[in-house]
Amino acid sequence: MKILKGTKLVPGIAEGIVALYVSEIEKLLPHYSIKSSQIPVELDRLDASLRRARETIEPMIGVSHKEFRKEASEIFSVHLSILRDQKLLNDISSLIRTKRINVEHAIHDVFEDYIRGYQTKEGHFNELINDLIDIRNRLLETFNIPTGGFQSFIGESQPIIVATRYLTPSMVLKIQRRNVLAFILEEAGITSHAIILARSYGVPIVFGIEVEKELQCGMEAIVEGYKGEVIINAGKKEKEYYHRKMQRIRMRRELCEVAGTQPLYMKDRQRITMKVNVSTPDEFNAISDLDHDGVGLLRTEFLFMRGGNLPSEEEQYEIYSKLLKQTAGKQVTIRLLDMAMDKMPPYLEIPQDRKQADVVRGALAVEMFPDIYLTQVKALLRADCRGCNYNMRLLYPMVSDPNDVRTFRDVVEEAKKSLKLEGVERDFKNIKEGIMIETPAAVMMAEELLKEVDFANIGSNDLLQYTLATSRGSPKVEKRYHIFHPAIAKMLRFVAETGKELNKEVCLCGEIASFEEFYPLLLKLGLRSFSVAVSRFADIKCELLYELQNLHESSEIDMVKNFYGAKSKEEIDSFFRKFV
Ligand code: PEP
Ligand code: MG
User: Fold this and answer.
1) Is the model's pLDDT at 134 over the cut of 50?
2) What mean pLDDT comes out for the span 50-71?
3) What domain range is 85 assigned to?
């Protein structure tokens, strides 16, 4: 028996046979020089390849929409637009012309160059690499070059554990959902497109394993997604142990099916609020099946990322009205447009230097693009109709002091005036206002900020990157701290305590809240309100229900052992003393 230690991504336990995906591209790529007279021929071959690749992608947009909802089809739409991009065509053709090499080789080299460019940055951009590999492979496959595949089992008829160095969106789509027991990966970014799709399979995922070195096709393995381990060739005793664990997990799920509709309470009857994060309109329908306490975060960026123009007030009004109607009676927290580097509306003209420094955020973005915010707030105020049973709250992103709050508030006041001038005669409701606490500055100013508004959401994703001077999703950070650094724990406790003193809600809405194993600590830190990804909601609520019934030391001990490597009871006690 051998235990391979990696990092967990999706919890759960699975046992089965490994199917190894091997990349073959380097071995089989034709590589030759061409004469100048042959250049037009190669350019024609490039044209044909791009056309065929686009033709193969178009049907996948529909298939992925059916299989995975809209977010998947959007991934392939992005691939399609990259294949239509003039820059890609220019880069490949100019390599063919200047280096006089065959088109397959030129495609390979251009993509290597792009990938290398992204590898030097970390974080979010890193996560585009798998999309680039996917597009490159699609182009090379038009020349019948095998880019990789599963050694023997492909999961067509038999359930398998998929082991692969990397995962691309097309690979996920090729593997039949019902035949996948688990994923073992070498590299993964929590927010990469392929991982978003793979997570929706609901099977355990572990990454950080040297797949090609450690695993072979046909090997028996157990994937332990709670600890992030892969156990190969387990003995009889170990197998029995994991079978018992799997049985307990099944029982826990059954408990949740019966009791999952109940609200959550601590043993002392303090209520725990569980809300959902909504990031695409597609999720509007999905949330109606969940027993949630409201929408804790509506990321409105999706409205600005699609199409080539700013969404009009009317378009926005329609979408906000739909969500408010669907969630009538429950809180809906709508965040004003958060312009981050990775979700910048592509058609906006932003000076290059600003884009790179990521300085078009929060109140600065309002100052730079006041009309965009004015239109958005007008649409929101109109959607929050009087007399309807709606409970809309506005959320201001990336603020760091009360002046930033006032910049946003001024837009709200202006929107009210402007609507009145347009003849929208009504008293606007006294809408609740909140802020994102997602920079160390906002943490330090938590008291001043909370006095200014009604509630706060903690955005741990950005808080982590700005606190640790790294970038979001950086594999380095994920591996070492598994997105929960002790500094973040201390900050969470500080903000939670400040909220308690001022009697203002503090809700955690970053990805940390989508990992159930952190809850023993999150609750100890004083947090009582959470907003989690739609896809994780049911599982998290279920686990929490179970934990709250049995909130016992062992879950805390497991967590500390797993994440911080503590070995003895003393080390675990001292760990908690540091934070709580
Ligand atoms: C966060 O930063 O944690 C957050 C919730 O906002 P986003 O992920 O949209 O930046
Ligand atoms: Mg954020």
Assistant:
1) yes
2) 76
3) 31-141
